[in-house]
Amino acid sequence: SNLSSLTFEENPYLTEIRHVDEYSGYVYRNQFGNINTTCGLLTGTDVRTLMLPSSITHIGMCAFTNNALENLIFEPTTTCTLCEYSFYNASSLLSFKVTKNMVLNEYAFFQANLIDGLVFADDCAAMRIPAHCFQQSKVGAVTFSDGVTYVGVEAFNATPNVSVLDWGGIVELDTGAFS
């Protein structure tokens, strides 16, 4: 496809983006019980920029795996949950800004690229970064806001280029958080 940018307009009926057949488990589990992360909604497309409205409250498991996205933009007022493997192997992402009411789940950005950095908005409150969230990703600089208090088990494990520019309000690093 030649579509390079995809913008979803504000729409009260557009609240969730899910991968096909997410609830049945058929798409996600192979015969060994492993999650199938081979194909997301934009896999095989040329979409480089995705703009999501504040009406989005849920991005499902594996929704945007294996894609060419460079820019992922959420409205600052978005209240959204990013499920496990939402952006697994999003190998072209340049950066990501976590907004105030965003909930990150384990492995949300597993093996993703965030070369230009990861920023937590200043108004993030009581934010906890779950286990394995950015594990094996290529994360450049990280800026934690004062509202980020906890980094989970191996959250940034095997991310050799990560550098923390601002520790913000971090009071607890769990086992192997940056190992």
Explain what this protein looks like in three dimensions.
It is a single chain. The chain is mainly β and about 180 residues long. Helices cover about 0% and strands about 30% of the residues. The protein has no helices and 16 strands. The protein has a 4-stranded parallel β-sheet with strand order 2-4-6-8, with no helix packed on it. A 4-stranded parallel β-sheet has the order 7-10-13-15, with no helix packed on it. It has a 3-stranded parallel β-sheet with strand order 1-3-5, with no helix packed on it. The radius of gyration is 16 Å and the shape is globular. Residues about 20-35 have low confidence and may be disordered.
Count of distinct strands: 16
The rough form would be described as: globular
Q: Could you tell me how far the N terminus lies from the C terminus, measured between alpha carbons in angstroms?
A: 39 Å
Strand content: 25-35%
Proportion in helices: under 10%
The H-and-E topology, N to C, reads as: EEEEEEEEEEEEEEEE
Task: Going across the biggest sheet, name each strand in turn.
Answer: 2-4-6-8
Q: Taking all residues together, what is the mean pLDDT?
A: 83
**How would you classify the helix and strand content by structural class?**
mainly beta
Radius of gyration: 16 Å
